[in-house]
Design goal:
With about 230 residues, this protein is mainly α. It is built from 7 helices and 6 strands; from the N terminus they run E-E-E-E-E-E-H-H-H-H-H-H-H. The strands form 3 sheets. The protein has a two-stranded antiparallel sheet. The termini are far apart. The structure holds zinc ion.
């Protein structure tokens, strides 16, 4: 039997505890060709995008989450989710193959659910960044910028609250992302400040690639400024 790129996985909802199915992409079908300057993976096969399947949308109650969400709900949060999401939810499934449009919808549900549940800023930033990447695939620049800005702000909050400690996010990567997303939304002052922080830490950084990337972007900003000065 030929292996298909997709398979179905059983998920238990963190909120209502009911079960539902979600689609995932088999890892042997995922080959990354390159990365964008903000780490967006460019896949070899443009037809299969695993980013579309990160969010589990509970078809029963609408609560939407990822593997990174904690099981813990602070007191009062379940009631808020019930009121803001579940009571308005018309049962529908996102369990099959998703279009980019549907993928974006699932990320928005994930951001709403995670924000109400008070998940870590670093996780919410990641969801906003992925939403921006999907808009980028659709060439919807205005929407892309809106979500890049949301991601930048959440990463900045995560950095100042140190809530990325113990996650896969390193300090260099975090500082680089804050800088690069700032550059992309046109906040050049912020971008320069944070690229400098990455470069300052180059002797202690375990990620020389990221330091090099920061130097390249910093150089690009300089060239751009010189061009503008000449007019
Ligand atoms: Zn549920």
């Amino acid at each position: 039997m030929e292996l298909t790129p997709y398979y179905q996985k059983d998920i238990e909802c963190l909120h209502c505890k009911q079960k539902f199915k979600t689609t995932k992409v088999r890892s042997k079908f995922i080959k990354v060709e390159s990365h964008h300057t903000d780490f967006q993976p460019i896949y070899e096969n443009k037809e299969i995008n695993p980013l579309l399947y990160n969010i589990f949308v509970c078809e029963h109650c609408g609560f939407s989450f990822t593997d990174d969400f904690t099981k813990y709900f602070a007191p009062g949060v379940k009631e808020i989710i019930q009121e803001q999401i579940s009571s308005k939810w018309a049962p529908r499934t996102y369990g099959n193959e998703r279009s980019i449009e549907e993928g974006i919808m699932t990320y928005k549900l994930g951001i709403l659910s995670g924000t109400l549940k008070k998940e870590k800023f670093v996780n919410m930033a990641g969801l906003a960044l992925r939403t921006a990447w999907l808009y980028r695939l659709q060439d919807k620049q205005q929407e892309e910028i809106r979500f890049l800005e949301m991601a930048r702000n959440r990463y900045a909050e995560s950095y100042s609250n140190d809530d990325y400690n113990g996650t896969q996010m390193s300090e260099s990567r975090m500082l680089y992302l804050i800088a690069e997303l700032s550059r992309k939304i046109g906040d050049i002052e912020y971008a320069t400040r944070y690229f400098s922080k990455v470069i300052e830490k180059q002797n202690s950084s375990l990620e020389p690639t990221i330091v090099e990337m920061a130097k390249d972007r910093w150089q690009e900003i300089r060239v751009q400024k010189e061009k503008e000065a000449i007019g």
